[in-house]
UniProtKB/TrEMBL annotation, chain A:
Residues 25-268, 278-523 form the ABC transporter domain. One of its GO terms (molecular function) is ATP hydrolysis activity. Pfam families: ABC_tran (PF00005). InterPro entries: AAA+_ATPase, ABC_carbohydrate_import_ATPase, ABC_transporter-like_ATP-bd, ABC_transporter-like_CS, P-loop_NTPase. This is ABC transporter related protein. Keywords: ATP-binding, Cell inner membrane, Cell membrane, Membrane, Nucleotide-binding, Repeat, Sugar transport, Translocase, Transport. PANTHER family: CARBOHYDRATE TRANSPORT ATP-BINDING PROTEIN MG119-RELATED, XYLOSE IMPORT ATP-BINDING PROTEIN XYLG. It comes from the Bacteria. Gene3D superfamilies: P-loop containing nucleotide triphosphate hydrolases.
Automatic annotation (TrEMBL), chain B:
It is a multi-pass membrane protein. It comes from the Bacteria. GO terms for molecular function: transmembrane transporter activity. InterPro entries: ABC_transp_permease (IPR001851). It is found in: Cell membrane. Keywords: Cell inner membrane, Cell membrane, Membrane, Transmembrane, Transmembrane helix, Transport. The keyword Nucleotidyltransferase does not apply. The chain crosses the membrane at residues 56-73, 85-103, 110-131, 137-158, 174-192, 212-235, 263-283, 320-340, 346-364. Residues 10-25 have a biased composition (Low complexity). This is Inner-membrane translocator. Pfam families: BPD_transp_2. Its main location: membrane. GO terms for cellular component: plasma membrane.
Amino acid sequence: MMNQEDQASRPPAQPVPAHSVQPFLQVVGVHKRFTGVHALRGVSLSFERGQIYHLLGENGCGKSTLIKIISGAQPPDEGQLVIEGVAHARLSALEALAAGIETVYQDLSLLPNMSVAENVALTAELATHEGRLARTFDRRVLAATAARALEAVGLPGNAEFQATLIEQLPLATRQLVAIARAIASEAKFVIMDEPTTSLTQKEVDNLIAVLANLRAQGVTVLFVSHKLDECYAIGGEVIVLRDGQKMAQGPIAQFTKAQISELMTGRHLSNERYRESAHAQDVVLDVRGFTRAGQFSDVSFKLHGGEILGVTGLLDSGRNELARALAGVAPAQAGEVLLDGKPIALRTPSDAKRHRIGYVPEDRLNEGLFLDKPIRDNVITAMISSLRDRFGQIDRVRAQALAEQTVKDLQIATPGVDKPVQSLSGGNQQRVLIGRWLAIDPRVLILHGPTVGVDVGSKDIIYRIMQRLSQRGIGIILISDDLPELLQNCDRILMMKKGRVAAEYRADQLGEADLYHALLSEAA
Amino acid sequence: MNSRIQPRMNSSIDSSNDASNDSSSRQTMTTPNVVEVAPSVEPQGLRMRLARNPEWFTVALIVVTCLIVGAINPRFFQFATLFDLLHSATTMSLFALGTLVVLASGGIDVSFTAIAALTMYGITKAVFAWWPDAPFALILVTGALGGVLLGVVNGLLVHRLKAPSLIVTIGTQYLYRGLLLTFIGTTFFMNIPHSMDHFGRIPLFFYHTADGLRAVLPASVLALVATALVTWWLLNRTMMGRGVYAMGGSLAIAERLGYNLRAIHLFVFGYTGMLAGIAGILHVSNNRLANPFDLVGSELDVIAAVILGGARITGGTGTVAGTLLGVVLVTLIKSVLILVGVPSTWQKVIIGAFILLAGTLFALQRKR
């Protein structure tokens, strides 16, 4: 605490003599493990005052874990955080706030039922009084703090706006309110997790100005974004994480985009294509003008039998929503679907099942599997009605045979089909889910992120299964943000942006870097 | 690639420096070059205002009910009716203000009636047996402390088990009531301690009606006023109160922002317990009767009143004024229907209809 006050009394914008320069925050040898995943493997970083850092890396590289550890949301397993020379083995959320570390999470962490002023200024009030709740607060001070912070991000500081509830504000304004909260708390270190995803260009420009401001006041900013163009526009240092390890750190101007992409993905070695020459078959699925308000609009494409069609895009591109619409989970509101040339309705998941369209969801634990039920029961759920004998009972012998066949076909590693699905590894669980749809002899199979959270060996097996299925004439739609996966397995790749199909590529004529640039480029 | 990007980066930094040099003299240091972004708040239409202040809907229902009842029976419009209303609303108001705090925090409590029953009966019986002349203030404080104790048990369980408060308080409701009936007693007694009896008879104000009856406003109404003021102050003027709403807005976010959820849980359930304990004692002195089978079973009436007062069952909202209006509405329906000759069984039908009406209205607003 004493040390902190020393720092505060020093004018932050002044250049400090070299001998007394001490990084604001050092992350020293931090490890973090979750069940089965080593998310951070000895990451060491150093953050100077008044600098902007861009934290880059693919999904699952450990970015979010690192943010959570710095902001005190999770403790590290090993290593420590050194804040202004004071080492901490772990931080609580309140300690991090008191030390001046503010996080603007992707979800913004605003309380929807409370006013703008309270969201902006109460956190600071709480942190300066060490979280004590048994006290009153001065509403005039609160309003003054809020007004100052709101004006600093270009929002009105008047009483009417301060009294507005967060739930009445559009998303972009909420974003600025969240940043205003960091300013109100006199943050010395602001973490912003993908702050520009919901902003228009004008709002992004405004945000960049806000960042320059913070920087001029000696505030350190850790900026997480997928949009490389913005990172270059903001300037500062870049930190690249891959598989829980720091790959590089340095001024962003010294790296080309291609270099950064390569550092982030780093998979230039394993570019072997699983996909072999596709033999053209008739169109099996013809989607025309598919639209669901606010999620995707006018999406049209054709899928041939035996073809693997990749669909990718950023999180807000509508790819996930498209997958769910095709599966009838959250149906499209306009457009039509033709299966083998005949129009079909996909209003519910059972519609999709009836037309033999299988859907393997991204979140297999919550949307797909009955974890505590045997493999056999999980495999037969989609075709259970055809297993009924004339008394309406399930034919156990056939069910058993079918499940055993699936286990063999899909190389599921288990001592028996009566073992619960939760006893299997992620990759094997995924194969049970695919096996369920094979049991209905599908025309179309939609695989949504089939290798998320699956180890390398299992990935390989799933890819081979996918290729084998396409040879049987099944049309496969592979929805994924794993670019090498798309390039290795697909015939064509659709790139979605802002709910529309922005481009179509032939997978065998494309490099990973090209696809990565296409994914991140602004043009829609 | 690099060459294309470099100039852009430089220009952005240059422009920001220029701007800050220009404006630093006339603006504060914090706002050199930030353009004002129109906040684009939705205009406050009538529906929006109603969504923010749902208590106006409650007021409307009260006015409509009064007009209908008054048209049928003009004797409704006299102070005596108001006194009766306030008298019978006291216990329920204390319960409702406690329930408001729990609902605002995102929880729910159905054990407060059991807390009230246990404290009122236990304390009345104990006082009568050992110290029949105990002063009323002491009895009231004991009731409050007993309520806090039982409420804090709720709070600890909810916080520790991370269990839904509905489950926990259903459990403790049975537990507290079972303890009362098993170990303390099942017979009701009219011989309540003298000071309690006396307090129940103190008039705050009285007058003689046209038919020569004495209309009395009992002193216990003061407890209602005091509790309303204290609850309002706690919720709106203290950090704890803001913490209650923060937790009701989102448990996870409140924790991330550094709110001490344990303290808030203990406060919320402890405070509700305290109000329940006080309400129990006042109930005994008002009715001059301690009945162990009393009170439990009226939880839904109380929760209904708070919901009708505009608090959302999902937490994070609700006001003291709205809650009191909700209590007035429910009490009105319960007491005046007899005045106009409607069978009392219709009470539940009307309260239910009002709740559905209010629920539909609020739901439609949120959907928009």
